[in-house]
Automatic annotation (TrEMBL):
Subcellular location(s) per record: Cytoplasm
Pathway assignment: Amino-acid biosynthesis; L-lysine biosynthesis via DAP pathway; DL-2,6-diaminopimelate from LL-2,6-diaminopimelate: step 1/1
Catalytic activity: (2S,6S)-2,6-diaminopimelate = meso-2,6-diaminopimelate
Site (Could be important to modulate the pK values of the two catalytic cysteine residues): H176, E226
HAMAP family: DAP_epimerase
Stored InterPro entries: DAP_epimerase_AS, DAP_epimerase_DapF
Domain of life the protein comes from: Bacteria
Protein name as it appears in the record: Diaminopimelate epimerase
Function description: Catalyzes the stereoinversion of LL-2,6-diaminopimelate (L,L-DAP) to meso-diaminopimelate (meso-DAP), a precursor of L-lysine and an essential component of the bacterial peptidoglycan.
PROSITE patterns assigned: DAP_EPIMERASE
Active site: C87, C235
PANTHER family registered for this protein in UniProt: DIAMINOPIMELATE EPIMERASE, DIAMINOPIMELATE EPIMERASE, CHLOROPLASTIC
Record lineage: Bacteria, Pseudomonadati, Pseudomonadota, Alphaproteobacteria, Hyphomicrobiales
Residues where substrate binds: N26, Q58, N78, G88, N89, N174, N208, E226, R227, G236, T237
Length: 310
């Protein structure tokens, strides 16, 4: 889609602008408060999510850098107004936007999960260093100890029993559980059991839920029910979580292509324990955030989970 306005306008003008983007169909809204404005309340975030013009899976809100050498302090919100410490697709989006505005190709962002370095080559080739995976049960976090988080036991009742045995769990800035299957990932009713697992008592901070089909040592297909957002066309951190979990189980090599409903991401787990995620970012349109917020002051119906397939 055509870029209608340069990013510099977004950064300098009042009233507050938003930019609607996507990373592999993962719907992202970017708002920049580095020159003032904000913070947003959870009800503001939900209002932006509920407006058809700005419906998103995650909202990336840029605040003034609080650590020297970083470009911004980034808060990440889900559609339900909850915060996530990590969003892979959204991180590619903000770097692409900033590349268009500044011409720079390297960025460092601070999130609640730490520092993220991003390298931009072109709109299809943006790499984020997502940091180190954490596999300890308390890091995920789980509410009870498991010695081996490659395969945990999760009591969930008699649904889709074959896949619900021995999933892997990992924290890649946010918590993930990955269920392994050799059937097509879209043959499961993830919209039905995703929320049950997201809110299972084993996950005190809730969890992102992924179905993964390891097709070869370098090809994995996934589908994800996102904590606080529901079914999405792509989840970058889920791709990272799945890739490193498959590698840890010795099912895959250290560099894989993870294909999501929205398309592929390349994930590499480096020898120095970093997860590198490479994929695209796209601008859809931009607009006036204040107009969206005032249009949504009236009570709106609750969100329904969505998966915007073509
Ligand atoms: N879509 C995002 C992840 C959002 C995670 C969020 N749902 C949570 O952890 O609460 C991504 O590309 O990584």
């Amino acid at each position: 889609m055509t870029v209608l306005h340069p990013y510099s306008r977004v950064m300098t003008s009042a009233p507050t602008r938003y930019v609607k983007m996507n990373g592999l169909g993962n719907e992202i809204v970017v708002v920049d408060f580095r020159r003032g404005g904000g913070p947003l309340k959870p009800q503001d975030v939900r209002a932006v999510a509920e407006n058809p013009a700005t419906g998103f899976d995650q909202m990336m809100v840029l605040h003034k850098a609080r650590t020297p050498g970083t470009d911004a302090f980034v808060l990440i919100f889900n559609t339900d107004g909850s915060e996530s410490a990590a969003c892979g697709n959204g991180t590619r989006c903000i770097a692409w936007l900033e590349h268009l505005g500044t011409g720079r190709s390297e960025f460092r962002y601070e999130t609640r999960a730490g520092l993220l370095d991003v390298g931009v080559k072109n709109s299809d080739d943006i790499t984020v260093d997502m940091g180190q995976p954490r596999f300890g049960w308390a890091d995920v976090p789980l509410s009870e100890p498991f010695h081996d988080t490659r395969a945990i036991e999760l009591q969930i009742g008699p649904i889709e029993a074959p896949i619900l045995h021995s999933p892997s769990v990992v924290n890649v800035g946010n918590p993930h559980v990955v269920f392994w299957t050799d059937k097509p990932v879209d043959s499961y009713d993830l919209a039905r059991f995703g929320p049950m697992i997201e809110n299972h008592p084993l996950f005190p901070e809730r969890v992102n839920v992924t179905l993964a089909d390891v097709q070869s040592r370098d090809t994995i297909r996934i589908r994800t029910w996102e904590r606080g957002a529901g079914l999405t066309r792509a989840c970058g951190t889920a791709a990272c979580a799945t890739a490193v979990s498959a590698m840890r189980k010795r099912l895959a090599d250290r560099k894989v292509t993870v294909t999501l409903p929205g398309g592929p991401l390349v994930i590499e787990w480096t020898a120095d324990d970093r997860i590198l995620m490479t994929g695209p970012a796209e601008i859809e349109h931009e607009g006036d955030l204040d107009a969206i917020l005032s249009a949504n002051r009236a009570p709106a119906p609750p969100l329904v989970p969505h998966e915007r397939l073509p």
